[in-house]
Amino acid sequence: MTDSRTSWLAGELRERVALGDYGSSGALDSEAELGRRYDVSRVTVRRALEQLREEGLLASRKGAGWYVVAGASFGQSLALGTFQHAGSAVAEAGVPLARSVVEYGYGPTPVGAAHLLALPADAETLRVQTVRRAGATPLDVVTEWVPLELAAPVSRADAEDPGTWETLRRQGQAIAVVRQSIAATAATDRVADLLEVAAGTPVLLVRRLAVGPDDRPVALSEHRYLGHRFRLDVEFHGWPAADPPGVAPITEQEG
């Protein structure tokens, strides 16, 4: 029973960290207050907190209680009008971001990637897979595909620093549009190994397609972020004057 309550509380607190609910100070409530709020024993609270400490999300100081480790979670504003990337969110948190190449080579393109890149099903592309770390902890696994006619300037060293997309930009390749899709998924054995988590751990899949001014695809990337370390934020301004098609207004009686 205790183990299940500990896992449950750890999950609740992990979610709060991921959502950035602890603000700029990152300070959690006291262990006694957490116990009252979640109706669990002090032992359960301590075990849950220690579990998150082992995961690199929390730390404690004598006399100062528990707090969120800098860089434990990042929030990136969704690109509305101009493209933004996770590096900016990590930099704003004051945490170093490092990229290491784990795969680099030319070969057949997966059917889905070939379709998005407007390539024949049997076309070859440059495929690069990297792991990015925020501080000492993995943040995401990135897989990228670049059409052969654009891939020549991207060496393995370039893919690591400054990165594939930035190398293309520095070589004069303009990117007019970035199309982004977001989905929730689970870490495969390969991704889990690179992220140093258990297989099946929730990850946020963000797929980005870069398109040039001539409407030709330039590059495709798939980022698999640890679900508890990264989020995407968006802000909406105003409210439509009319209800969207197919949505009935809520009447005073229904409310």
Summary, kept brief:
The protein has 255 residues and is α+β, with helices and mostly antiparallel strands. It contains 8 helices and 10 strands.
Report what the structure shows.
This protein is of the alpha+beta class. It has two domains: 67 residues, Winged helix-like DNA-binding domain superfamily/Winged helix DNA-binding domain (Arc Repressor Mutant, subunit A, Orthogonal Bundle), CATH 1.10.10; 160 residues, Chorismate lyase-like (Chorismate lyase, 3-Layer(aba) Sandwich). The protein has eight helices and ten strands. A six-stranded antiparallel sheet has the order 4-5-6-9-8-7. The longest helix is centred in the first third of the chain and has 17 residues. The radius of gyration is 22 Å and the shape is elongated. The two termini are 40 Å apart. The mean pLDDT is 84.
List the helices and strands and how they pair.
Blueprint: H1 2-18, H2 31-38, H3 42-54, E1 58-61, E2 65-68, E3 74-77, H4 86-92, E4 97-108, H5 111-116, E5 124-134, E6 137-147, H6 148-151, H7 156-170, E7 177-186, H8 189-195, E8 202-211, E9 217-226, E10 230-233
Parallel strand pairs: 3-10
Antiparallel strand pairs: 1-2, 4-5, 5-6, 6-9, 7-8, 8-9
Helix pairs in contact: 1-3, 2-3
What would you call the structural class? alpha+beta
Report the CATH superfamily of the largest domain: Chorismate lyase-like
| Percent range for β-strand residues | 25-35%
Helical residue percent band: 25-40%
Mean pLDDT: 84
Identify the CATH architecture of the largest domain. Answer: 3-Layer(aba) Sandwich
